[in-house]
Design a protein that fits this description.
By secondary structure, the protein is α+β, with helices and mostly antiparallel strands. The protein is built from four helices and six strands; from the N terminus they run αββββααββα. The strands form two sheets. It has a four-stranded antiparallel sheet. The protein has a two-stranded antiparallel ribbon with strand order 1-4. A hairpin with a 6-residue loop joins strand 2 and strand 3. It is globular.
Length: about 170
């Protein structure tokens, strides 16, 4: 490009390929970036597995650890994976309950991409002898995905896993 910026920088992707990446450990949804879905006429899932999610208990300030599973069916925009990683790292010093964190992530991704369908599932390691696995999903209102979201929510954990401290 004539002004020295790459094609991706012109499209708004600044994290990918940046050698000077800074990790922000305070919740910041502005870290999220998108790119164009080159297959908008096809429904398909994109799934991210993030085994290093950390947030803080809002009461005790002890760290909470989880593996996150984020799946979505894109429309026009898709989340760029490095920006998603940086965004998820930004929860490191964020104090909120597990359920709140999963809903915040879902809300931010829905606002960012306007997907047809999205789900966020956090599988937290046990603390105090109990693990918490909040599951949040969304189907675009007025589409078949709204009904699919209801059905997946109603049936998402029919076969619970054997808990083995993850």
């Amino acid at each position: 490009m004539s002004d020295g910026r790459t094609k991706h920088q012109l499209e708004g992707i600044s994290h990918l390929g940046n050698q000077g990446t800074q990790y922000i450990f305070d919740y910041d949804p502005k870290l999220l970036e998108t790119f164009e879905n080159k297959h908008p006429n096809r429904d398909y899932f994109v799934k991210f597995n993030f085994p290093e999610f950390t947030s803080l208990c809002p009461i005790t300030h002890q760290p909470d650890f989880a593996t996150l599973y984020i799946s979505y069916v894109p429309t026009i925009r898709m989340v760029e994976s490095k920006s998603l990683k940086l965004y998820l790292f930004s929860f490191r010093n964020h104090g909120d309950f597990h359920e709140d964190c999963m809903n915040i992530i879902a809300n931010d991704l829905i606002e960012l991409m306007d997907p047809k369908y999205l789900e966020v599932w956090g599988k937290f390691t046990p603390r105090g002898g109990i693990s918490i696995d909040p599951y949040v999903n969304y189907g675009k209102p007025g589409t078949k995905w709204e009904e699919i979201a209801f059905n997946r929510l109603a049936n998402h954990d029919l076969y619970p896993e054997k808990i083995d401290n993850r």
